[in-house]
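Possible regression after last week's pipeline update?

I re-ran a chain I had predicted before the update to compare outputs. Posting the input and the new output here so someone can diff against the archived version. Not blocking, just want to make sure nothing changed silently.
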Amino acid sequence: MRKLFGSIFVLLLALGTATLAAETRDPYKHFFHETWGDYQEELENAREQGKKGVLIFFEMDECPFCHYMKENVLNRQKVQEYYREHFLNFSVDIEGDVEITNLQGEQKKQKDFAFKENRVRATPVFAFYNLEGERIHRHTGKTSGVEEFMWMGEYVANGIYKDMSFTRYKREKRKE
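New output (post-update):
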């Protein structure tokens, strides 16, 4: 009997793992868009594609909260599909020396774009920009999970940021 329950447990565990694997995908292939680092051009691409804006994920390699987001939230298929439908999504290394062109067409290193221009002091930072290149929402730190991250996408994509804070929006969503 114990052997039977052990076999059933292993089977259920394998099925659960297979289901989770089917729902998760590499965020660098399925969440983030490829870019040559010209964010002014990417802003134009977002307009042409009918997106709501651009999302920049400021991260660094040693950041456990960045890893949490990539391994638990940004790798989810429903997150990837929603965000790619509404935004162009890019990752910026806050310690990077790679030259990029910011949303205003100025060339600078990734680390200067992050630190000097966007005042990123801790990671991760999710910075949403409208189609004119103005930052409209900023979230520092990891979200509590998939649900809160999806709410953030809805909050920006639906223009709710114009009428209330994200904290208030989350409070109202939790009441539903």
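Follow-up from reviewer: compared with the archived run. DSSP finds eight helices and six strands in the chain. Marking as no regression found.
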